[in-house]
Amino acid sequence: MRNPLHIGSSTSLTIVIKLGTSSIVDAETHQPLLSLLSSIVETICKLRALGHRVVLVSSGAIGVGLKRMGMKERGKSLSTKQALAAIGQGRLIALYDNLFSQLEQPIAQVLLTRGDISDRTRYLNAVNTFTELLSMGVVPIVNENDTVSVSEIRFGDNDTLSAIASNMVHADYLFLMTDVDCLYTDNPRKNPDAKPVRVVDDIESIRQKVSTATLGTSLGTGGMETKLIAAELAMGAGVTTVILNSQKISSIFPIIAAADTAVIDENTLPQHTRFLRKDQPLGDRKWWILHGLHTSGEIVIDEGAYRALTRKHSGGRLLAAGVVQVKGVFASQQAVKIVVRLSRSSLSSYHPEPDSNNNTQPSSRSHTPSSSHRNPLASGLTHGSDSISASTSNSTVNSPEVAPITPSLLPSMSLSSSIASLDPLSTSVSISPIPHSVSPSLASPALVPAVVAATSEEDEWEYVEVGKGQANYNSSEIDRIKGMKSSRISEILGYADTEHVVDSITLKISAIA
């Protein structure tokens, strides 16, 4: 067997490694897991010695704070959790600095909030900081700023933050370290017959076949579902994502080395789950619009306007004539959701079109070769008929035959504290009309997350969320000029900065045939 020190990709890679609280402190005693942390630090330093750039996304501030204060539980009070995070973060970064200093590896602390991600200027400043740190040979250690970040503490872990960081640094790999070897079809701790899943190329399909209720400790707030969400975001950014046991972190070396081979034989590699990156990932700005921006309202458009937006020459800009309704209150330049109003009879006319010019653009990133393997679990699993595929990589139209739906297998889309969970478009999902044969009580919102049921006054309409954009006028102004010709904007508003009411539109769902 080759020495891992001599196994490496022939090219320099950018690698993001995410550690959960269970890999940092003991769940019962809250003592730092020094042996495991030392192994992780040593692995990162070996990766650096091989010429790779490494970013570490680390949870654990609250767990370390509990130990310092002699507390057994973190409690339910938000202010208590924030205080514990403030106490623990300084000690956590000091612990990392001490360990990395033994191997003369400089580190830097980077604390981010959702506000930093959603504000374009602050986001780009953070990107520039990452770029400079990596060029200096520094290992950035990233964490959510729990002291001021309310939602992170309440709902989720750093899985999605690691996916966002991966996009910011143009990573080649994202390693989600956890306390099981890989993704399984069921909870391996309870079901000895649970089967490992080695390769995934479609998240929504695999959700129907695997257990996501396998992880999460009394200290950590994430789980396998948040890792699937993070993997989906990273895949869309062109990042290969790997779920790996933190006790076997040295397995990173043969996994990245295998990318140099023409065909990857997963059975010869250590146990892990590899999520294949998209061949045509979203460009940086489009990815940020879809997954980084918080929306303040909705612009409802007609089918004709949607068809126009899917064409390359539209430039992602919307005219007032195509707007039929404005929802919410927002100011000019704020982000809005784009929702298309469809007649129920027209839903059957939707057909996915791969590689829509407005959905994806070639990435300028350099990547290692992706595997040609396809997971047999990740095909033909979408329920319903005439579904709208939100993934540009899968372009087959579903069979009109309705597959039976098992409620226990329906995925939950509300487990993550991530930006993805705040906006349904942040996860690529297959959207299908609810089959008539399915009882409304069994129809999970996860099957139709972006389809809003029509009101009794509008029984003929369905509303499908298809993208995001930035408003050029405020909500009141767009409401006044909706449905109007562009030539009338100045007459109605008294001014006309632009004929487009929304621009920088990024679509998530494929075009109408």
From TrEMBL:
GO CC annotation terms, alphabetical: cytosol
PROSITE patterns, alphabetized: GLUTAMATE_5_KINASE (PS00902), PUA (PS50890)
Record Pfam families: AA_kinase, PUA
Residue span, PUA domain: 297-339
Keyword ATP-binding assigned: yes
Regions of compositional bias (Low complexity) in chain numbering: 360-374, 385-399
Residue ranges of domain Aspartate/glutamate/uridylate kinase in the record: 14-245
Keywords, ordered alphabetically: Amino-acid biosynthesis, ATP-binding, Kinase, Nucleotide-binding, Proline biosynthesis, Transferase
GO BP terms: alpha-amino acid biosynthetic process
Gene Ontology molecular-function annotations: ATP binding; glutamate 5-kinase activity; RNA binding
Residue ranges the record marks as coiled coil: none
Protein name: Glutamate 5-kinase
Species whose genome carries this gene: Phaffia rhodozyma
